[in-house]
Design goal:
The complex is a heterodimer. By secondary structure, chain A is α+β, with helices and mostly antiparallel strands. Helices cover 51% and strands 17% of the residues of chain A. Chain A has a domain of 77 residues: 2-Layer Sandwich (Alpha-Beta Plaits). In chain A, a hairpin with a 4-residue loop joins strand 2 and strand 3. Chain B is 41% helix and 28% strand. Chain B is built from two helices and three strands, in the order βαββα. Chain B is globular. The mean pLDDT of chain B is 93. The chains are: A alpha+beta, B alpha+beta.
Chain lengths: 131, 69
């Protein structure tokens, strides 16, 4: 049982094809070759213990997984900056030396209140009139 | 049996590593050049049969994908 799928790299970049192939290496034999133009020929071959019905299921799932991996890649690209910012912040805050150095660089400490945030409302604006 | 692989889709180092892993089961020669990788498999262990070549290529592809990260 062999099935050839021609995959356009314009729709499914090579890294998507690789990611999908890697998932299926334990379920079938995967062979890649250059197709016409930008296409990659993906040849799937059933393992000896795999019957026709199971193989057809694998082929269908493989094609679905291509779509899944392409979508994952797109989301991955779209959220890269946010993920990097979160990791940078998490790593930075886990270094006490770095955090204290940063405060020293700015010439302040945690008791400073330059914006008057810690001052009670009544002290700042006086008590309400008429009560 | 001779198999031709595309040098842009398979890494030569991964194919060579796969050949080393399967060396005890067949006589395997890997030749690289002109964007193609030729794999010649001879004297296959009778217990393994032709599935050995398929397993070898799967192994080479896994190594290629792992190397590309």
């Amino acid at each position: 049982m062999v099935k050839e799928i021609l995959v356009s790299q314009r729709i499914y970049p090579l890294e998507v094809i690789y990611a999908t192939a890697y998932i299926y290496l334990d379920r079938c034999y995967v062979f890649l070759d250059r197709g016409e133009g930008d296409k990659v020929s993906v040849r799937l071959k059933g393992k000896p213990e795999c019957d026709r019905r199971e193989f057809e299921k694998i082929v269908g799932e493989f094609e679905n997984e291509l779509v899944n991996q392409a979508f994952r890649r797109k989301v991955n690209q779209r959220t890269r900056e946010v993920r990097e910012a979160i990791v940078h912040r998490a790593l930075f805050s886990s270094l006490p030396e770095a955090a204290s150095l940063s405060l020293e660089d700015e010439g302040g400490d945690y008791l400073d209140d330059p914006l008057g945030i810690a001052v009670p409302w009544e002290d700042k604006f006086g008590k309400e009139k008429g009560k | 049996m001779k198999v031709e692989l595309d040098g842009k889709l398979y890494r030569l180092s991964a194919v060579r590593q796969a050949a080393r892993e399967f060396a005890g089961l067949a006589r395997i020669r890997v030749l690289g050049g002109k964007g193609r990788i030729s794999v010649v498999v001879e004297d296959i262990d009778p217990d393994m049969g032709p599935a050995l070549v398929d397993e070898l290529l799967n192994f080479a592809l896994a190594g290629t994908i792992a190397a590309r990260g």
